[in-house]
Each structure stands twice: as C-alpha cells, then as structure tokens.
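Box S1 | Example of a co-folding query
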Amino acid sequence: MRVRAVSRRAFVLAASALLVLAGAPVATAAPVLPAPANHWPLDETSGTEAHDVVAGRIASLHNGASFSQGRQGNALWFDGVDDQATGDQVDFRTDQSFTVSAWVNLAQKTPGTVTAVSIDGDRTSRIQLGHNIDDDNNPLGRWVFQAAENDSDSGYPTRVASSVLPSEEGTWTHLVGTYDAAIGQLWLYVDGKRVGDGTLNTPWQASGGVRVGAAKVAGAPARFWPGGVDDVRFFSRALDRAEVSELYRG
Ligand SMILES: [Ca+2]
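Box S1 (continued) | Returned holo structure for calcium ion
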C-alpha cells in the first residue's frame, strides 16, 4: 500500500513537471504588449525635435521646452508658462478604441487643470492626460484623463476619469488613459492600477497630432504643464488591466 501511494505521488509530480515543460499556462505569466501606434521615448539630448520611434512622427519643441534627465533616459521638461511640443498627426483613430500612456512628473501643483499629453482637434483637445485641482471637490489635486464630447470652443461637457487618491508632486507617476469604444468607457490608471472611469457618448476623430506639455482650448494652446513628461505611447486599442500593469512595470 505504501509503495503504491508513493508511486502515485511520483506520477503526479512527474506529470506536473511535464506540464510546465510543455508550456502550460501559468497564472502569473506577463502579457505580451501590442506594438504601439506611436512612441516618443523622449531620449534626445538636444535640439528642437522629439522623434517617434514607431511611425516616424516628429514633435517640435516650442518656447524653451528641453530634454533633461527623465524616468528612463531623458524626458521633456516644461516651464508651465508656454513650453510645449506639437506633432502633426497620430497613427490611430480616436473615434475607436485606443490607449495613451506616459510617465509624468508634476514639479508643482497648480490650480485648475494642467495637461501633460493631449491630441489636437481643431478647436479643443480630443483627449487630455493631466492633473486637476478644484478647491471644492479635490483641493489636494488628482490625476485626470478627459475626453471632449465635441470639437467646439466650449469643449464641454467633457467626460472625466479622475483618480481617487491625491496626487504627488516632484515624483514620476505612470498615467494611462484607455477608451473602449464598444462600451463607450474611459478608464484612468495610475501607477498600473485602475483608479477611475467615465463614459464618452460621442467619440470623434481628432484632426491633429500629439501635443505634449499643454492642451488646446478654444483653438489655442493652454493648460501648460509644469514639470516633466517621459515615454509617451499610443496604442490602437484599449489595453486591459494586466497589460497596463505590465506597461507600468516596464
Ligand atoms: Ca525617456
């Protein structure tokens, strides 16, 4: 009897080992991320152009935006007054599912909204990833991912996904916004964790390109970002929780 029990255990152990060797699914396996549609590592050391390493799009630096030490390699740094970088086009549709991802470093908390990454419409930003302080609702500041319902000067109502915890300043934070067109849902992820959501009723195709360090309001740059932005990526679908977590762990 004892021999038989030992044999059975040995068989189970051997079978388990074979399953592992055969590449059986393991619960903790990291997902393989899709290739981005656009990706600016922002590792340049000088000059006035930031290069997209996937689609070759160039973001031009304006008014003193510059490269310096970032989260990984260099990053773009902005004065929060008029610095920004702008591109002419992105390579995915904004009226379908997508993801925007960036590392951001807010040098100082500023009243109202400041925008780290946005995509231009004609009159307003299609989407914005950034930070908001509202004395009535979130005086300590929160991370936000917002999308405009239409391309107009009023720009409202936008649909906002806002983090549930106060933001930090002077440190690198990973922000991801996803839009799932099938259910009209916006999600905001902070440091790999899903922290807020919102519903977008009328998705539209943005006419313009990326804007880093600012947003577009009533046809003009605004909401200038005080601090750093690194590793801006766009994906042409909504990444899921596991994928965003993997992107954060990098
Ligand atoms: Ca970088």
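The CA atoms of residues 23 and 127 lie 41 Å apart. Residues 2-21 form the longest helix (20 residues).
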